[in-house]
Amino acid sequence: MAHSIEGRLPFLDHKVVELVRNMPVALKIRGLTEKYVLKEAAKPLITETIYKRQKHPFLAPPSTFKPNEPLQELVQDTLRSSLMSRVPFYNHAAIIDLLDQLPNMDESKRSSLDVTLMKMLSAYFIQEKFGLV
Predict the structure, then answer these.
(1) Using CA atoms, how far apart are residues 114 and 120, in angstroms rounded to an integer?
(2) How is the chain split into domains, by residue range?
(3) What does the pLDDT read at residue 44?
């Protein structure tokens, strides 16, 4: 996030922050709809499809296994490293087993693991950045 482009700059205006800070939660979240008041305010300006769609995260680009490509080499080298074995909540032997299986998996299965691999990689870099590994 330190090197990304933030597309929601208008929401950082202090007047907007002050207004929303003082709103009751029922206007911010209604049922399973987050940012309820924002969606209602924008409703006349957006399509019905956009209005009705569920919130979804922005995910990193896929890292689907492509041998000898820089991203795959980073994933393999980092997740196999001895430092990764010190990142809590992960079974390092299971990670290595998974990495060994990647070349033999069909593309669909490998693609389904992209998010998991990126989360493990992110956990490693966060641990490393803050001197925890």
Answers:
(1) 10
(2) 9-52, 70-129
(3) 95
